[in-house]
C-alpha cells in the first residue's frame, strides 16, 4: 500500500468504548515524520469523540429496541414510535402532521368558504370587479398562506388550489356574470389542464391572478393563451415583490398588474414607494394593462394613489371582503 499510495508516514489510533476496541482511526501522509505531538494529541481527541459517538449510537439502538419490545399493546407501541420519531426525526414528524392536516381538509372540501373583496375605480368609488379569497375552517391555527405553503410542502399544492378555486367559483354565483371575479393560482396550477378546463367551462367573466410563490416558467405566457382566447384575463399578483420582477411582467404581458400591498403601506409618506408605484404605472401603460393597488387602508393612501394617477385599488378602506350573496351589485 505504501508503494501504491506513496505513504511515508502513518498513525493508527485505536477507537475504544468501555475498554473494548471498536475500531481504529488511521491517518497517512506522503511526507516522512508528518505528525507532531500536537497532531497526535488532536487525533486522540478526535478518536475519543468518534468512539463516544459510535458507542452512544450503539447504546441508543439497544435502548430503542428494548423500549419498542416493552410496548406490547398496539396503541402503546404506536405512541412510543411517534414519541421516538419526534425526538429523533422532528422534521419528518412535522411533515407527517402537515400531511394529515392537508389530507383531512381535502377529504372535506366543504370546510372551505369564500369571500369577495371589491376592486374599485379610485376616483369614482365604483366597483369594477371582485377578488375571491378563500377562508379555512375557523378552528384552524394556520393562515391561508400557511395552508397553501403546507400543501405545497407535502405535494398537495395543486389539489388544494383546485379545491379553493371550486369553492370560489361556486360562491361567485351570487355575483352578476358580467362582473369579473379574480382567483389566485400559482403558475403550476394555472398550467394544469384540469384547472384550465374548469376555468374555461365557466359562463362568467374571470381573472386569473398568478401568484409569486414560485418562479414563472419561460413558457407561462404561451401556455396561458388558451385561457386568454376564451376571454379570461391574466393578472400578476404582488408586483414589486417576490418573483414578480419587471422581466417577468414584460415576458407575460398581463392584462392586469397588482401592486404588492407592502408597497402601499406608508406610501403617503415615503417618496421611494411613490417613485416605484409611478414606475409600475408607466410600465402598465406601456403594456396596455390595468394597474391595481392592493391593501389600500387609509384615506391618505387613497388620495396619494389618485394623485399618482393609479386608477384602481382594493383594500379595507375601499371595501371589506364579504360572502358572494352579500356583495353589492
Plain-language structure description:
- There is one protein chain.
- This protein has 329 residues and is α/β, with parallel strands linked by helices.
- It folds into two domains: 87 residues; 229 residues, EAL domain (TIM Barrel).
- It is built from 14 helices and ten strands.
- The strands form two sheets. It has an eight-stranded mixed β-barrel.
- α2 runs antiparallel to α3, α4 packs across α5 and α5 packs antiparallel against α6.
- The longest helix is centred in the first third of the chain and has 34 residues.
- About 2% of the residues have low confidence.
Keywords:
8-stranded mixed β-barrel; two-stranded antiparallel sheet; 2 domains; TIM Barrel; 14 helices; 329 residues; alpha/beta; 10 strands
Poorly predicted runs are 84-89
Shape, please? Answer: elongated
Number of strands: 10
Identify the CATH homologous superfamily of the largest domain.
EAL domain
Please tell me the total number of domains: 2
The CATH C-level name of the largest domain is: Alpha Beta
The proportion of residues forming helix, as a percent range, comes to 40-55%
Secondary structure class reads alpha/beta
CATH architecture of the largest domain: Alpha-Beta Barrel
Q: How can the largest sheet be summarized? A: 8 strands, mixed, barrel
Radius of gyration using CA atoms only: 30 Å
End-to-end distance, in Å? 87 Å
The CATH topology annotation of the largest domain reads as: TIM Barrel
Return the average pLDDT rounded to an integer: 84
